Amino acid sequence: MHLKKLLSKMAFAMTNRQYYLYPKKPFTILVEGNIGSGKSLFLNHFKRYPSMKVFDEPIHAWRDCGGHNLLDLMYKDPEKWGFSLQSYIQLTMLEQHVKPIKEPIKFMERSIFSARHCFVEKLMKDGMLTQESAAVLDEWYKWIINNVDIPVDLVVYMRTSPEIVMQRIKERNRQEEKNITYDFIKDLHEIHDTWLCDTKTDTKKLPLVILDGNVDKNNMEQEFRKYDSYIMDCISTLS
C-alpha cells in the first residue's frame, strides 16, 4: 500500500477510534535496548495515538511478586535471586506478548527474547546462574518459542553508549539501580549489539531499526519523528 494512503487510514483510525480497517492480529513492535537507553521516551512518543497500544516493561510486577521486590533483591544479590527474577520476567513478558488488544498496533518495551538473549545471557556470563538454573530457564524459553504464537513484525533498537546510559541512570536515581556499575552496563551494551546485529541470532530475520539513543533528551522527540514514516511504511504490510 502507498504510504500516503496508509497514513490517511491511520489518521482516520486515530481520530475516530475505528479499528475495523485492520486485521485482528496487531502489528507488533518490540522496543529493545540497554537500561536507560531511551526506550520509555520512544514509547511515550506513540502513546498519544489511540490506534496504538503500548505495553511498558512490567517493572511494577517485578517490584511486587507476592509482596516481594524481586528486582531490588536481584540487584543486591544476583547470584541468589537472578533465577527467581528471570523466571518471573519470562512469565510477565509472555503475558504481555499474548494479551489480546483491540488496537491494530502493539508496542512492547523489551520482550521474552531480550530477557533470554541479553539478561539471562549476562547472568550466565557472570556465573550468577548455576548450570542447572540456566538450563531450566533455557528449556522454558525454547518450549515457549516453539509452542506459543509470539508474532513480531519490527524490532526498534535504542542503541545508546554506556557512558550516556550511566549518566541517565544517575539522573533518574531509581532505588534498585543505585549499585549498577559501568562494567555491568558496558557488558549489556555489547550483549545487545551481538544479539541484534549479529547475523546468526534468531531475530536477525526480523525488520530492524537502529535509533541513535545518544541524542540529547530534549531533542529526542524530533529524532523519533524521523522514523514515524518508516514505521508506518512497515505497517503497510497489514493491508
TrEMBL record:
Domain Deoxynucleoside kinase as annotated: residue spans: 29-223
Top-level taxon of origin: Eukaryota
InterPro entries: DCK/DGK (IPR002624), Deoxyribonucleoside_kinase (IPR050566), DNK_dom (IPR031314), P-loop_NTPase (IPR027417)
Similarity comment: Belongs to the DCK/DGK family.
Protein name (record): Deoxynucleoside kinase-like
Organism: Nicrophorus vespilloides (Boreal carrion beetle)
Gene name of the encoded protein: LOC108567605
